[in-house]
Amino acid sequence: MNFMQPVRDFLGCATPDAWLREAVKQMPLLMQDHANCEKKAASTAMNLMFRYNDRRELQHKLAQLAREELLHYEQVMEMMEKRGMSYRPVSAGRYASGLRKHIRTSEPGHLVDVLIVGAFVEARSCERFEALAPLVDAELGRYYTFLLKSESRHFEYYLDLAKEYSPEPIESRVAFFREVEAELMTTPDPVFRFHSGVPIAEEG
């Protein structure tokens, strides 16, 4: 899939095999956290739209993104219901907080960093869907493959907006967050989630 190459190039590492092995053993938890991630992604986009309501391009792109994320949330919920899985809250892992703690507090740096972090979250989701698709059952694999194009577009939305609203080139900030994100992916993580790192049980 050629449209996936920019996603792979953007990320600093591939998903570790240890995470994939754990994922296929914990699909109910993974689907639950996936649903929560879609809902959180819609909420993040909406919060940015309210906070920066004078940015026309941001309004346009994030409105579309929020609609798609909510649709995906509904789709995952329906798939869970078909499989007899009940919805329940799942506590957050370290991933989002591990990225967000490095976001600058003053503008325009704050907005730029939030958008860059958004790009990494979307790109990682996309990369994981591609890696998981051949490992899960046929129905779920088709759905994960279906998600790839929209998720790859979402990563580009965030990155394009970061470039538009930054008064200076963003390459150094992207490189910084790439290192942070890769470390979160490749180091031991005690909590298994859709965006978690190497499962503790797989360490070593």
UniProtKB/TrEMBL annotation:
Q: Which domain of life is it from?
A: Bacteria
Give one GO biological process term.
tRNA modification
> Could you give a GO molecular-function term held by this entry?
tRNA 2-(methylsulfanyl)-N(6)-isopentenyladenosine(37) hydroxylase activity
Alphabetized Pfam families for the sequence: MiaE
Q: Which PANTHER family match?
A: TRNA 2-(METHYLSULFANYL)-N(6)-ISOPENTENYLADENOSINE(37) HYDROXYLASE, TRNA-(MS[2]IO[6]A)-HYDROXYLASE
Q: What is this protein called?
A: tRNA-(Ms[2]io[6]A)-hydroxylase
